[in-house]
Design goal:
248 residues, mainly beta, Immunoglobulin-like, 2 domains, 17 strands, 8% helix
Length: 248
């Protein structure tokens, strides 16, 4: 039985459209982060110093990171360890030995391939989870980023929030040396109800009200250093989380 050519074309187009609709990908979580900051001596080895340059680019499951650390003024031909402090604890990133002049340059990265003098970052480790970098020797930490104002910072995060009540939400955080802004756009909430923005388990002082259609837009510029943020939640009036996500 022959099928009309026009009908076959229409049906074929409809099938293709349906297939395309089903295959449409969801939103992709992204993070773009770079920082340049100094390592200062802790008093254990006066006169020592260093610098850190780090970048992280994350698109969905794809992750590329690079870290360059330079140190000088340390004890010559001596072993040290580069250690990262995170909200989850301490992570040793690299053990190294200074040269005859007390200097060293470290290269660490994730992504496709590693150079001859490059050390791989631990599996699952993200630069944006670091709250402090230290260089430790036999007498403890000799260099640290703690308390230092970065020379430059660029941070841009966009992430889908999870919900157990059928709501939808997107978190965006942008930061530089001068300020941090946090936006939450949500829908599917209770119209006219009040909600709280909760950072690391602690509500901010202001409350927010969803419009009659259950949409909520939160803008906040008082959240501080984005690297100190590990969780962002939206709570209802009973202090129940209706939207939540972890960072990074």
């Amino acid at each position: 039985m022959k099928m009309n050519t026009k009908l076959a074309l229409v049906l074929g187009t409809a099938v293709l459209a349906a297939t395309t609709a089903v295959a449409k990908p969801g939103p992709v979580d992204t993070l773009h982060f770079s920082i340049h900051t100094a390592l200062t001596d802790t008093g254990v080895e006066p006169g020592s110093s260093g610098n850190v340059s780090a970048t992280e680019v994350k698109n969905g499951s794809r992750l590329n990171q690079n870290v360059v650390v330079t140190v000088s003024g340390l004890t010559a031909n001596t072993d040290y360890t580069l250690t990262a402090q995170t909200n989850g604890g301490s992570v040793d990133l690299d053990a190294f030995t200074t040269d005859n002049n007390g200097k060293a340059t470290l290269h660490l990265r994730t992504g496709n391939g590693h150079g001859k003098n490059t050390v791989a970052l631990p599996d699952g480790f993200e630069i944006a989870s670091i709250t402090e970098l230290d260089v430790a020797g036999g007498s403890g930490n000799v260099l640290t980023t703690s308390g230092n104002t970065p020379k430059s910072v660029s941070y841009s995060l966009k992430k889908t929030m999870d919900s157990t009540v059928g709501a939808k939400g997107t978190l965006e955080i942008k930061a530089n040396v001068k300020k941090t802004t946090l936006d939450v756009n949500a829908s599917g909430l209770s119209g006219g109800a009040t909600y709280q923005l909760v950072i690391n388990g602690t509500p901010v002082s202001q409350t927010y009200t969803a419009n009659s259609k259950g949409r909520l837009n939160i803008k906040n510029n008082t959240v501080g250093n984005p690297l100190d943020i590990s969780t962002v939640e939206i709570w209802d009036s009973t202090n129940t989380a209706v939207l939540t996500t972890t960072i990074p």
